[in-house]
């Protein structure tokens, strides 16, 4: 066991306790951030006259060597090191001797881990934003191609009014756009550097915290050293934003699963993005969408777990906080993986526009428009609603759509109907007439698409 704190102890740590306490098994993921933070710290210590030029250079070279060896798999994370911080520091001392022992001057593992976790979370925010942006650009191109792909819009999973595929996908565009805004927003709030907070009460060395912050591309230093070492709000906020992303992906997945079913047949998932059954040869299953829907629970779980971990912790650092990592890392990785495969799935998915249009023609999605037709001919809306209700009942008995009835049949129910009804309630008219901003009418959707295009250009991926 290579511990950094043996001095005041007279007994070896119990083996079970050692394993229970150690975090290298999962915090080794922070090796890049840990080294990056140490390089910035050493640079600042030297500028402040706390380290000599030679010591600084030796430390930085040593750290870069360790980084390189980890990446080249020449150095592995042996379990005798307690955590990533001990691992890096012990190896540095082995390699460069006394200068290595000075690196931890004016620093505690409490502000060190707080920094590492912030740097790591920041990179994950960037990576997630990039995947979201990719998904948005696929959605936008599908929207452009499907301005006149008619489909039923649903409420209560019952056909309600006709819409278009572009309009339906546009709803998801808005959701994922808001997800990006949440990331940009929490990034602004979290981009402050905790290094220099020490164990909890700062340090007596003349550190230049603003300089360390600058070296690590932070907006500035955090302003309270106790908060700096015990704040994990940014992980919670990120997990919350990730949970919302998963909720959106899960709703979308649910629709794709329905649309891909034998009953709907609105879409066909590409062979490369579906799987078969070991027993039923005819099967082509939407496993990717189901897995995305399923993994949503796991991401919500990470959020609940950390909220619960943090809720009773007195100031400042407590070891409970080491539990911020495993589930958070898993959630961050899971969401990016989901975004990548989900985007691939919808990019390659075939939309059966004929089936969608036929479905929109059945199920009385034009009933509201038929009522509006009567209103335009002077019938009060409440009466028109009743007339169309009776008309629908008659259609159900006859197994016909409203526009499949003859004019005679129509006029028997209400003499106000004329030949122009057919045109007025055709699928095309029903969609084209919906021209308020945000509605599916293709002319107005083109304006929305232009705005979304501008949005994508104005907001490149965060970095
Ligand atoms: N492994 C610890 C964590 O992840 C590092 C900080 C340890 N600090 C301490 N005083 N024990 O939180």
Provide an overview of this structure.
The protein has 20 helices and six strands. The protein has two domains: 6-101, Fumarase C, Chain B, domain 1 (Orthogonal Bundle), CATH 1.10.275; 109-207 and 222-358, Fumarase/aspartase (Central domain) (Fumarase C, Chain A, domain 2, Up-down Bundle), CATH 1.20.200.10. 62% of the residues lie in helices and 5% in strands. The protein is mainly alpha-helical. The strands form three sheets. Strands 1-2 form a two-stranded antiparallel sheet. Helix 12 packs antiparallel against helix 13 (326-348). The protein has helices spanning 15-21, 24-27, 31-47, 53-71, 84-96, 98-101, 109-145, 165-190, 209-215, 225-230, 233-259, 287-310, 326-348, 353-361, 367-376, 381-398, 407-413, 421-424, 427-432, 442-458; strands at 150-155, 158-164, 192-193, 220-221, 267-268, 350-351. The radius of gyration is 30 Å and the shape is elongated. It binds arginine.
**Roughly how many Å apart are the termini?**
39 Å
What fold name goes in the CATH topology slot of the largest domain? Answer: Fumarase C, Chain A, domain 2
**Approximate helicity band:** 55-70%
Query: Measured on Cα atoms, how large is the radius of gyration?
Result: 30 Å
Low-confidence stretches: none
User: Structural class of the helices, strands and pairings?
Assistant: mainly alpha
Please give the number of β-strands.
6
- Beta-strand percentage? under 5%
| Shape label | elongated
Bound molecules: arginine
Mean pLDDT comes to 95
The main sheet comes to:
2 strands, antiparallel
Q: Helical segment tally? A: 20
Number of domains: 2
The side-by-side strand order for the widest beta sheet comes to 1-2
**Class of the largest domain, according to the CATH hierarchy?**
Mainly Alpha
The arrangement of helices and strands along the chain is: HHHHHHHEEHEHEHHEHHEHHHHHHH
> What is the CATH H-level superfamily of the largest domain?
Fumarase/aspartase (Central domain)
